[in-house]
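The protein record filed below.
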Amino acid sequence: MEKRGKEFQKKLLSTFKVEAAEHIQALSSGLIGLESAPPGDERMQIIEAAFREAHSLKGAARAVGLAEIESICQSTESVFAALKRNALELSPALFDVLHDALDVLGKLLPIPEQPSGKAEVPIAELLRRLEGALQGKAQPRQEFRAPPVEDKTVLADTVRLATAKLDALLFQAEELLAAKQAGAQRVADLREALAELARLKKEGARVAPAIKSLEARLRALAKSAEQDQRSLGAMVDALLENMKKALMLPISTALELLPKMVRDLSREQGKEVELALSGGETEVDRRILEEMRDPLIHLTRNSIDHGIEMPEARRRAHKSPRGTVTLAVTQKDGSKIEILVSDDGAGIDVAKVREAARKLGVISPEAAEDREHEGLLPLVFQSGLSTSPIITDLSGRGLGLAIVREKVDRLGGAVSVETQPGRGTAFRVVLPVTLATFRGVHVRVNDHRFVVPSAQVEQALRLKREEIKTVENRETIRWQGQAMALVWLADVLELPRKHAAGSADDRLHAVILGAVDKRIAFGVDEIVGEHEVLVKTLGKQLSRVRNLAGATVLGTGKAVPILNVADLLRSAVKVAAAPVARTTEKEDVAAERKSILVAEDSITARALLKNILESAGYHVAAAVDGIDAFTLLKTERFDLVVSDVEMPRMDGFDLTAKIRADRTLAEMPVVLVTALESREHRERGVDAGANAYIVKSSFDQSNLLDIVRRLL
C-alpha cells in the first residue's frame, strides 16, 4: 500500500511539474509584454491574465504540498492584485523582483525521484523583496547573472494534441482492422489452396480438371491480394501522414524561453535589445524542435554577445541605442522551413576571422590574404575558431557555431551566414519539416548500397570516360559551364574502388551533392533509383559516425546506410585536395609535459585546482598571491597561469597586467578563476589581457581543462 502511494505521489509531481512550467512560462511572457509598455487596456488584460496564472499555480502547489512554491505564488499574486487596483506602479526594479521570483520558482520545480528538492535558492530573501515591492519599495538585483542557457533542455514528455487529430488517427486505425481481417482471410485461403495442391500431387494425372480449378482459384487469390495490398498501402500512407501531423508542434514551443533570455542577457551586458519573433505558428516535427532548441538559443545569444553594440557605441554610429534581434520562421515549400536569426549590430569583423583562422591553422597566411570576404565567412563555423578576446562562461571557446552546424547537418539541413559591416549579421537555417520519411537516391558502390537524401542531390549524371578531365592532378567534370571536382564515393568512404582512373568501363555515374554554397560530384558504380525511405537511427553507440546520418530498411529486408551529405562534402574536400596532414589537437603539439602556475590564496581552492590539473597530466606549481606568482614566473618556466582575482598584496587583474607588460612573459596565456561575475569584472579581465574568465559559480573541472587545452 505504501509503495502504491509513493508511485502515485511520483506521478502527481510529474503532472504538477508540466503544469507549473506552463504557468511560469505564461507569467514570463506576461512580464515581457508589460515591459514593452502596452496601452492601458492591453496592460490591464496582461495583468489580469498574470494574476490568474499566479493564482492557479498557487493552488496546484498547495494540492501537492509544496509550501515554498505556494508562498512565493501567494506574494506574487498579491503584487499583481495591487497592480490591478492601480495601487502599485510598474518600474524596472519591480520587474527585476518578479523575474527573479519566476527564476526561483523554476528552480524549485520538483524532480519526481527527489520530491523534497535541494535547490539552493534564496527563498527568504526573495519573499522579503516581494513584500518590499508590495509596499512600493522594490529592490533591483545587486548582481546580474547570465541565464543558464547552456543546460540540456528538452520538450515535455507529454504533449497536448487536438482532438480532431486524435479522431482522425482513431478512424484510420479502425479502418486498418478491415485490412487486418482481409489479410487473415487471404492467409486462410492460401493454406487451403496449398492443402488442395498437396492432395492433387498425390493423385497425379487423373485430376487434371481439379488442377485447372486450383489454378483459377490461385489467380483469383493473387488478384484479391493485389487489391488488398493497394488498399492497405493507401491506409498506411494516410495513417503515417496523420501520425506525422500528430508529432508536429508549433515552432513557438521551442522559442518560449527566448524573450526572457534576451532580457536577462542584455541587462547583464548593459545593452538594450529587443527581440522580434515571427512565424512561430509554423509546425515542425517535435524531434527537430528538440534538436534545434540549443542551436537557436546559441544563435540568439551570439547576436547579443557579439552583434549588438553598447548603447553609446550605437549612438555614435547614428543608430537607435536599442538594438533588435530578429527570429523569423518561413515555410519554403511543403517539406522545408527557413529560420532567420539576424541582428542590426556591428556585423562580423572579417579581419578578425582571417586572423583567428590563421592562428588556428585552418588556412595558411597566403590563403587567408587571397580569400575574398564571402570566402572567409563560412570559417566562423569551424570548431575552435573565435574572435572573442577572452574565454568566459558565455563565449570565446569557438564551439557554439560549430555545434550549430553539426546539429543542422545531422538533421539534413543547411546553415549559412551573411554580414554587412555596421549593419548587422544574419544566419539562415534551412531544415526539413519532418524526420520520419524522405525521398532518397539509392546508389551502389561495388557491392555496397547507400541512400542519399534527394533534397541535397543537385543532379544525377551518366558520364563518359572522356568527360572526366584532370586539372592540377585532380579529376573534374563540366557542369553548368563550370569545372567541378569529381571524387569517388568509394574513396571518401574508404572502400575499394572498381573504376580506376584508366578503366575501360564506359558506364560511369555520378551524383552532384550540395549544401549551402559547396557542390561536389561523387562518382558511383550505379544509380539504382529514387525511393521513399523510413529513417532508422543508429542507436546511442553509433549516434555520431562520420559520413552516416542513419539507416533504412529496403523492401527486401536489407538495411542500408543513409549518408550525411555535409560530412561527405567535408571528407571529399580532403580526398580531392589531398592536403598535407595538419595537427588539429593541441595535445599532438605538446611533446613535453606542460607546466602550469596556479595563483590562489585559498588553501582549499589551491589544492583543488592543483589536483585537477595534475590529474590531467600537467606539471603544476602553486603561488599564494600575485607577488609570489610573478616572482616564480621570473625564475622558472611556465606555459600557462591560472589565477584567482581576489588575493592579498597583488590581485589577479594586476598580475595579468604585469605579465602582459613584461617582454618575456607577454604571450603567456592567463586564465582567471573567480567568484566575481559582474559585467564590470569581466571587462576588467579583458582590459587586463586575460585569455579566459571562469566564474566559480559555473565552474567544473571539464570546463577548466577544456580551456587549458585550447590555450596551450
Observations:
- The longest strand covers residues 322-333.
- Confidence is low (pLDDT under 50) at residues 114-119, 143-149, 500-504, 579-591.
- The chain is about 45% helix and 20% strand.
- Residues 163-203 form the longest helix (41 residues).
